[in-house]
């Protein structure tokens, strides 16, 4: 392996691995695949109905299950809802393209180009690309209003505004809807509740490195 | 982490010590019971879980059946997206690539360092030790990995590497060790998990903000789009994947999935199987060098190292290759009654538990005594197959590998076990021979008279009778009873052939 | 219907009361039972320890002995699993296509005892009487290899006089595992001790299972502890009636 300009040349390994793969795939032999499965346990949680109302109700329930907060408001009440969600936060950053006026002392995304400038900000307000009801997940594709990735990571409070019509029921629906974002080369961040760990005795603790508080503002 | 798994004893020897460790037994029993209950609940919520398992297995099988094509597709998409793709045949090559890139970026720093997202692949290749040897510190940022690293310990679980430690032990490690590598633990640190997590947050934050190079693995690599996926909980992954200038991702060649839509299946299977959650707190997906609306977002110097390190050998075994479906969820560990009592260290590698017992001897070869003992480190109870989200037939694979271990030794001087099996097979091939052997048993039974239990047996049967009474043979076996009571019945017409030889 | 009993080599040699109970039970239910004396062993102990080549003659012998019967009844979940889940693979591994076909034709007719009673004979109440406190351990191979489900429990619930109590953590392996009990005795005994503790917690007098090998392991631990719990095969409970209460001879 030679290294040029800090980039190793691994073309020899590449050829060898592809050759090994092709040789391996020509191997003969047989296998009886199993077709049995454990007996299904009946689910005691009824499958949610597909109406918009049921989907949003499920979304709220599942987000709250992660010990995240949900604030529900009509579109005319968003300003007040954001004020409530931001509470005591003294510094708040708002991404480019976030359409609503946010009350209080604001920083714009362009003011905090450097990570060290983001560190120390109390709160961030973003929108989302979509949300998933079954899993209580919000997905950011970091388009307008959502900010670059670091922006929603370093502040300790993340307030995320989701419109009710952005909530899909299932993970597969979400993945299909996100295809254009991925094809456009956008990164995705899936967020399900505040950061958490179960690494000590499997005891779940909310709040490690990401925002320790997640507040979803659901606009209906 | 300076400790390694090199030179570990065979499974039964290591296990003997582990089952005698009461603290370990308690920690493991509590942790595995907790996570099993959580998984059962999360899986029970999904109506078509079994159909989902089939889909997961099929997607992985599709990738493996055309792995060369998918690898080239992934490489092309990544390259188009501005990433540099490297290939490594083995651990040494993979380490050399990462070291070369890291050195070039940070060698002149006063304290050269990289931050790491938890990654099984980098543990498998011993990357931290390789970086250390090149004068570069590698900081593990996952809480459990941090506990293992600070405690100069070995991981014992795929998902929760410090599962063998309880909160009191973690507090001691943090108080003693954090000060030696950075921000010390708070003076008033208690053993509450929330306080311990807080200590880790403070300790690592300065490293995240300072580091220029991050190293990650990937849970999935989508061949169609070139997207890498890291599934995590704490936010340490997002930190590493977003803040540094350079990102090097070490990816086993079996981590590919065919299409973007296939990812949905795994995003349902993995969190519910591993942490028993509907969804893990954070998942990051990125495709090469990323920008949002024309502005750079995240590392602009992006490298992906595709690692073989034994995987193509596994692929060449049409039965054994099913182990390459593994998505490292660790559900099989949590349901395994052997793992629950022994923990991860006895398996002698970063891959413990049932999946480790089938992956280890395949990835590393069957030359070592430890590797030969691993396929036997199971009762074949089948709980692992039922829990596996991609339907890896672990019991069948264990038997398959046992056969290979036995076949490896054929031709030489037979072991006592092999000699006994050969003699046994000879006896069982003809009923007349079996009857002769059985007569010896009933004769012994008559000699033992009214004794129903034997409490002490000679070697090698003493392995049984050390803790268990053994039944005394009956004075009349079933065959004799049948002949005595049913003589002339239809069954007798089909009597054993070869009588009177 | 020509019904053959595959006693299994372990039962034949060490626990003859079990296949005798099967004969008693099936005859009481109106079956004519054959015991082809050429039968030996399913080969599981060879297959599962890695001696696949040694198992192949036993697969061949099994097909020869049982091929013509309408049903083969096996009082062991584990041996049933060996026949149904492993024989075809062994034949294929040996490259013997004729044998593989013969195995595939025979295996659907091989039934574990509780499967035969519930699925083939269609009975749940077999007319048994067993006035004892009983707990049931579902053995791994009956549960997760051949998937007998709750058939044994349905049969036990229909037994008159029985006081059937649930075993805590019932579905967890007892730690026997065939060769595992000898190759990894420490872990095997650790698992068995937990199982024995759960059995004692039920205060049952009798521990019932569908595999005598697992019963020998847990029973051996209970015996060493002088726990006063008798391990008993499902067949022996089901064979017992008011007129002919079953009296076990062999003890595990």
What order do the helices and strands come in, and which of them pair?
The complex is a heterotrimer of chains A (220), B (501) and C (252).
Chain A lengths: L1 E3 L2 E3 L1 H15 L26 H14 L3 E5 L4 H9 L5 E3 L11 E3 L6 H4 L4 E5 L2 E3 L4 E4 L16 E7 L3 E2 L2 H13 L4 E4 L4 E2 L7 E2 L6 E7 L1
Parallel strand pairs in A: 3-14, 4-5, 4-6, 6-9, 7-10, 9-14
Antiparallel strand pairs in A: 1-2, 7-8, 8-11, 12-13
Chain B lengths: L10 H9 L2 H23 L4 H17 L1 H14 L3 E5 L2 H16 L6 E4 L3 H5 L2 H7 L3 E4 L2 H8 L16 H15 L11 H18 L2 E4 L3 E3 L4 E6 L3 H7 L3 E7 L3 E2 L4 H13 L7 E6 L3 E2 L2 E2 L4 E7 L3 H5 L15 H5 L1 H6 L10 H12 L4 H5 L9 H5 L6 H15 L7 H14 L1 H18 L4 E2 L7 H4 L4 E2 L6 H9 L3 H4 L8
Parallel strand pairs in B: 1-12, 2-3, 2-4, 4-7, 5-8, 7-12
Antiparallel strand pairs in B: 5-6, 6-9, 10-11, 13-14
Helix pairs in contact in B: 3-12, 9-10, 16-19, 20-21
Chain C lengths: L2 E3 L3 H6 L2 H12 L4 E2 L9 H4 L4 H15 L4 E4 L2 H17 L3 H10 L3 E3 H8 L12 E4 L3 H6 L5 H7 L5 E3 L14 H4 L1 H17 L4 E4 L2 H13 L5 E4 H6 L13
Parallel strand pairs in C: 1-2, 1-3, 3-4, 5-6, 5-7, 7-8
Describe it for me?
The complex is a heterotrimer of chains A (220), B (501) and C (252). By secondary structure, chain A is α/β, with parallel strands linked by helices. Chain A has a domain at 70-219: 3-Layer(aba) Sandwich (Rossmann fold), CATH 3.40.50.10420. In chain A, 25% of the residues lie in helices and 24% in strands. Chain B is of the alpha/beta class and 501 residues long. In chain B, 51% of the residues lie in helices and 11% in strands. Chain B is built from 24 helices and 14 strands. Chain B has helices spanning 11-19, 22-44, 49-65, 67-80, 91-106, 120-124, 127-133, 143-150, 167-181, 193-210, 236-242, 262-274, 311-315, 331-335, 337-342, 353-364, 369-373, 383-387, 394-408, 416-429, 431-448, 462-465, 478-486, 490-493, and strands at residues 84-88, 113-116, 137-140, 213-216, 220-222, 227-232, 246-252, 256-257, 282-287, 291-292, 295-296, 301-307, 453-454, 470-471. In chain B, the strands form four sheets. In chain B, strands 1-12-7-4-2-3 form a six-stranded parallel sheet, with helices on both faces. Chain B has a four-stranded mixed sheet with strand order 8-5-6-9, sandwiched between helices. Mean pLDDT of chain B is 93; it is low at 490-501. Chain C has a four-stranded parallel sheet, sandwiched between helices. A four-stranded parallel sheet of chain C has the order 6-5-7-8, sandwiched between helices. Chains B and C meet through α1, α15, α18, α19 and α20 of B and α1, α2, β2, α3 and α4 of C. β11 of chain A pairs antiparallel with β9 of chain B, so a sheet runs across the interface.
